[in-house]
Structures are given as structure tokens and as C-alpha cells.
Amino acid sequence: MPYTLPIVLPARLIETHRVDLSAPYSTGWGTTAHDVAAAPCGDLYALYQLYRHGGGTAGDQTGPAAGNFNYRIITRYAPDGVPLATALCCPSGAGEWASAVADGPDMTLCVLPDGLLSVNTHPDCTTLVAPDLSAVVGTYHTQGRQAFEEFAPGDPFACSISVTPSGRLLCTTTEYGVQGYGNSLTNIVGVADGPLTPDHKPSIQAVTSFDPEPAGQTQDDLRPHVLFDGRPVGLHNRPRPALREIFEPGRPVSRWDLSELFRPAPLSDELFVVPMRARRGSRGGAFAFALVNDQAEQKGRLLGMDPWADSPFTGECFNVAAGGGHAFHLNRYGLFAWNADGTLAIKLSTADKTFKPLTRFTLTTCSPAGELLLTHGEQHLILRVPVPEDIADLGKSVETALTAYRRERAALKKTWTPIGWHWVQDGAAVHHL
After folding, report:
1. What gap in Å lies between CA 46 and CA 35, rounded to an integer?
2. What are the C-alpha distances in Å from 338 to residues 189, 224, 303, 321, 401?
3. pTM, full prediction
4. How many helices (H) and strands (E) does the chain have?
5. 204 closest CA partner among 177, 151, 178, 168
6. Euclidean distance between CA atoms 273 and 264, whole angstroms
7. How far apart are CA 420 and CA 405, in angstroms?
8. How much helix, strand and coil, in percent to the nearest 5, is found in the chain?
9. For 64-91, what is each residue's pLDDT tens digit?
10. From CA 109, how far away is CA 3, in angstroms rounded?
11. 1 exposed, middle or buried (CB, 10 Å; 0-12, 13-18, 19+)?
12. What are 135-185's pLDDT values in tens digits?
């Protein structure tokens, strides 16, 4: 099984829009990886974006060869790393098809226990896609609430989903008025009380909140499928104390003003890591990786990171992954691993020449097979790093994976002959969702 997989661009898409792959991104085009998800069978799914803004300088600017465009792209890989199929969704160019995938910011992927691929985005939009990427089989969609606009509740579910070891769904949902904003922002972490299918939307039992009292809510802001203490979350009903209250007891809330909650990671079926940060922060700013259980009890935080020397604000790296009873975080200063009790098990510093290449990677998730899945932002490659049984051997595993990455990258270049590290594929199935 290879360590390295290319993030592929469909040849027909490149030809249709006459994308100059050798042109710098400063000319208005680019591709960006957003997430990677893994199925228990070994298949991988990558989510990324291809776009052009301000395309062309002369002639007809509305045609596909010169005009602006934007696509979300999902590619499915076999366990041996071969790209099997690609799906295009959420196009924004003129004359494109109407996508059945709910579009929005902060889009993520999750493979559900029944094999369906869940595509989630804000505010609380969930699209269910067939495992082979051939069709959308279900959509839960809402526009959310916006200040000074007529509210249409829609049919929301969650803005992110992760699966616990036994198959429970760990979800985040939004609320209106978080930190006084006139839109819907992530504020609730909860656990679904059953499976999510195209025909059944389970209730989500809230286990923690971030903002204890969102502003300006009305009866319209109660979500019947998100519950706390047997009642819909909203108005004055949500888990308390909220994370802001726990991490700033007795202090002015200004340190956590304009803050945000990130996608949580399941350490076990009952214990979850919830990343949060002060949005106004810079290196040395306030952040925490909180521990919360499924009984709405706060269990502390992941310990051992220095607010300055290990700051995730450099490079804006706040993702946390979990697997095998350990939590993982990668930022520009190192790869960190914690035990389930929150104690730091090991740090691989990027000041060490061996691990310096990690500064170019972003951690997405941990696969059911126990692999950390990383993406390289410039070379558009996915790296699988096996997590050893003894976490003390993580350094050896990372070193082996990075060595394999260099070797396999060279082999991929000979086979694919990329232009500017862009891997163009012709021949695989391309679906329009």
C-alpha cells in the first residue's frame, strides 16, 4: 500500500477552461485541498477546490475558456491509491448545471457507518452521496438565519460530522447570534441518537456549547432536532457552563471575543476533543483543545503545548485528529500526540531536520486503519502516516513515511508528468453531482 496519493484534476475540466497549469496562482486561478476522509474498507476520499477569478484579459470573458469558475471536487481512491472516480459539484460558472450538493463555507467529508459519504458545510447542511460518487441520495439543507432577512427554516442537520469507533455520529451545529453576529455560526457539539440516512434524520443530543448566550434569538431559532435536557437548543437552553465560561472563569470575555469553534474529534465513543481559538489572536493568542464527554461533562483539555513556542496561530493550524485512543495535532512547530487523559505523549519538533518537512503538510483526520492523513499544500499530494501501537515509536513511523513520500513522489512524477505539481487525470469516471 503506497504512502503517497496525487490529488487529481480531471483532464476535461482543465481543457474546457483552458487552465494554464504553469501559471502562478497570483494570476487568479488555483486549487486547494480541504479535507480527506477514509472508509473502513480502505477507500479514501479527497475534497478540494479548483477555481479561477478574474480569468482572461481579452475577448469574451463569459465563456468557459476565459471566464471565472469554481468547482468543489471529490475524488475516491482505492486502498492501493488508484483514483477510481471523481465528482464535480457546486459549480459557479455561467451555464453550469444545478448541483444537488449543498454548498457553503468550511466544507468537510465523513464516511458514515453504512458507507455513504456525508458532505457537510455551514450552516448545518448535510448532503449524502453514494460511495461510488455516482449520485446524491439525500440532502438536508438550510440557508440559516441572516439579520434583516426573512427566515426560512429549511431542513438542517449538521455543519460537520465525525464517526466514533463504534459508529456514533459526533456533530457540530450552528446557532444564530453567536457572539452577537447576525448570522449562523458553529456553537453546539452533540452526538446523534441514531443513524443518519436519506430517509431518517436523528436527533442530536448537545454535549457542549461555546457561546452561553447568543444574542437576538427568537422562537424561530429553536432547532427541533438538536436537544438539550429534552428540549430544543436555543434561547436560554444549551449546555452550561459553556466552553468560554470554563476557560475564562472570572475574567473579561474580551480575550475570547470573536472566537470560533472547530470540528471536534472523537477520542473514544464517550470522550471528544473540541478545538477552539480566539479569532483576534496571533502567535501566543488564546486557544484550547477541550475535552468533553457524552454526558455534557467537561474533562479538562489537552495539555503540554506552550502558547508561544507551539502556537497553532502560525499558519492557522487548528485541526485535531484522533485514533487508537490518542489525539493528534500538527502545526508549524511540531506534531503532537496525547493520551486519552489529556497528557502529552510525544512531540516531534519541526526544528529537528528529520521532521522539518511536516511544516508543508496539513493534518486532516485519522483513518479507521490507524493512519494520519496529511495533505501537501504546494505539491497537491496526500500522505498516509501509520500510527504505531506504541506511541513512543511515532517518530520512527513519521520518518519512514517521509522517506517513502520522497521516493514515491519521484515515481509519480515520472508516471504523471505533472505541470507545476498539478496531477491531471484522463480516463476515470467523472460525475456531475
Report:
1. 6
2. 21, 36, 8, 11, 20
3. 0.94
4. 3, 30
5. 168
6. 5
7. 18
8. 15, 40, 50
9. 777 888 999 999 999 999 999 999 999 8
10. 21
11. exposed
12. 999 999 998 877 777 877 889 999 999 999 999 999 999 999 888 888 888
